[in-house]
Amino acid sequence: MLCPALQSLPGRTGQVGLDPIARERNARRVRVRRVSERRLRGRSVILVDDIVTTGASMRAAIAVLERAGARVEAVVALATAVRRDSPQKTEWNLTGERG
Predict the structure, then answer these.
(1) What is d(CA 74, CA 46) in angstroms, rounded to the nearest whole number?
(2) Residues 49-63: pLDDT tens digits?
(3) Which residues are CB-contacts of 71 (< 8 A; sequence separation ≥ 6)?
(4) Rounded CA gap, 70 and 6, in Å?
(5) pTM, entire model
(6) What are the distances in angstroms from CA 93 to CA 5, 14, 35, 76, 97?
(7) How far from chain centre, in Å, is Cα 30?
């Protein structure tokens, strides 16, 4: 079942051009839609994103989904971007640490 559960909060901007710290701050401006809260509680979900650059958006999404009572079982990204302004991680887990 597809459930577009996340909603950007006022003040969230596009991530393009932001450094990693600003991306983390900006990415946290997200919440679970009120109409989705009850549907998510106790459910396993798979998070799908179009592109991962630093992982900030995924980490923020996982945090709000878990606070709403969902269990994030997996994340899927359609593409990854290579940043030239920060060291690249060849492997990483959902906390953003090299694993």
Answers:
(1) 5
(2) 888 777 888 889 999
(3) 42, 43, 44, 45
(4) 12
(5) 0.72
(6) 23, 23, 30, 12, 6
(7) 9
